[in-house]
Design a protein that fits this description.
Helices cover 42% and strands 19% of the residues. It has helices at 18-27, 44-53, 62-71, 86-89, 93-101, 126-142; strands at 7-13, 35-41, 57-60, 74-78, 106-109. Helix 3 (62-71) packs parallel to helix 5. It has six helices and five strands; from the N terminus they run E-H-E-H-E-H-E-H-H-E-H.
Length: 143
């Protein structure tokens, strides 16, 4: 009998990992049972924060981003994860290329700290963006 494969939900973050940790706290209790919640930080502080928030597995650094983005079924994180030199330079061009080129759907959180403003988004508090991202993730995984 063949083992049923889990779907991989990947949360990426940098700096202190606060946004990723909040996403994980929102996602962990509502994800379908066949999903594994993984995190990758651009640095060890971000990874540790996301693991403490409840991610099942975690890794750190450029190679971890590249490797896990290619294998993810859904990717979530701040918009800076798809920008070369995003998140104050923590996202290398190779990381940004791997995430933006990954086949998985991406749910990105707007953040003016990256200097990117998305026309059509409303000014909202971060917690509202994160709640909406969690709702979009559950909807994507349920379809």
């Amino acid at each position: 009998m063949k083992k049923q494969q889990s779907r991989r939900v990947l949360v990426l973050d940098g700096q202190g990992g606060g946004m990723g940790a909040q996403l994980i706290r929102l996602l962990a209790p509502v994800l379908p049972q066949d999903c594994v919640l993984r995190c990758v930080g651009t640095n060890v502080l971000a990874t540790n924060a996301m693991l403490k928030a409840g991610a099942a597995q975690g890794a750190t650094g450029e190679n971890a981003v590249i490797y896990n983005a290619a294998r993810a079924d859904l990717i979530l994180g701040p918009i800076g994860i798809i920008l070369a030199n995003g998140i104050m330079g923590e996202v290398s061009p190779a990381m940004a290329s791997a995430v933006s080129g990954a086949e998985a759907p991406k749910i990105l959180i707007p953040s003016s700290t990256c200097g990117i403003f998305v026309a059509g988004t409303e000014d909202r508090r971060l917690d509202e963006y994160l709640q909406r991202a969690a709702e979009l993730a559950v909807r994507e995984l349920s379809s």
